[in-house]
Every structure is written in C-alpha cells, then in structure tokens.
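Let us practice reading a record.
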Amino acid sequence: MSKKTIMLVCSAGMSTSLLVTKMEKAAEARGVEADIFAVSASEADNNIESKNVDVLLLGPQVRFMKAQFEKKLAGKDIPLEVINMQDYGMMNGEKVLDQALNLIK
C-alpha cells in the first residue's frame, strides 16, 4: 500500500495535533505509511492545492463548514467526512485512522 496523506481540519489546528500524534502511532503499529497532519480551516485551501491529499477529515467543531469543503473539493476526488465526535473527544487515533483509511479508495 502506498503512502497515504491524511489531512485533518479544525478551527485552530491545536487540539487536532494531539489526535494526529495518536493516529501516527496507530499507523506505525500497523505498518501503514501515512503523512498525517492538522491545519486550521484558514490554512486548508493552500494544503488542498499544494499537497497530494488522499482524504480530508473535519474536526467536529468545524462540521458546519462541510458544505464549503465539498465545493472546494469538487472534481478533486478527495473524500471528505466529519470525524466522529466521540472518537475525537476520546482522542481515539485508532478509530479515526480507520475512518480515514476506509474513505480512501
């Protein structure tokens, strides 16, 4: 399996950075090569354009922006979903990694 690029978007990029660390540990434990990173909603556009993103996950606190991101991703073949609120709250890197990998074709 080739390296996967997983982008998480939240309001400031802070709380999600802890989740990124947990997801990276889960990926490493499974032998999954992944570039997992978190950005603020305002930085997301640049990353969508400059990186080869395989999947975009929105933090629950920015789920109201899902329609905006659907428009930005139109024609780009990048799956988009909101992170499960319970998994986010528990910082469950395993489950959020599963969610991301299941969205990648």
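A brief commentary: The chain has one domain: 4-103.
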